[in-house]
Write a structure and sequence with these properties.
This protein has three helices and no strands. It is mainly alpha-helical.
């Protein structure tokens, strides 16, 4: 398998994991208010970690890469929790 085909396969696999995770978290958040709060807090923590990581990585990685991390977290959050106002 060539590198391009392997990268495509990894991207498809990563997306499959994301779909399953989004579905699970969405159902968990919808199950009751406490779970919704806990899932919301987990997304808040993930965004904080992505900010810390961006600072830690500094000049070693492109800004686009670290911004993509935060954007991806926000997209998953929106899929799971809907368009609610973020804290």
């Amino acid at each position: 398998m060539d590198i391009e085909a392997e990268l495509k396969a990894l991207a498809v696999e990563q997306r499959a994991y994301a779909i399953v995770l989004e579905s699970f978290l969405g159902r968990l958040a919808a199950s009751d208010r406490t779970m919704h709060f806990k899932v919301t807090e987990a997304f808040n923590q993930a965004e904080d970690i992505s900010d810390d990581l961006a600072v830690e990585l500094g000049q070693r990685h492109e800004v686009v890469d670290t911004m993509k991390l935060r954007t991806t977290i926000r997209e998953i959050r929106k899929t799971v929790l809907g368009d609610e106002k973020q804290n």
